[in-house]
Amino acid sequence: MISVFALCTGSIELDRASMLSDLAPGQPWTVPVLSFLVDHPRGRLLFDTGVHCQARLDPVGRLGPERVKRLTVKSKEGDDAVPQLARLGLKPDDVRYVANSHLHFDHCGGNEFFPRATFLVQRPELDAARRPGFVPGYSPSPIDFEHPLDYQMLDGEHDVFGDGAVVLIPTYGHTPGHQSLFVRAGKQAQMVCASDACYTRDNMDRDVLPKILWDASVMRDSLATLRTLRDQAGATMFYGHDPAQWQTMPRVPAPVI
Ligand SMILES: [Zn+2]
Question: Which of 27, 34, 114, 245 is 20 to 30 Å from the Cα of 97, by its Cα?
Answer without folding.
Answer: 245
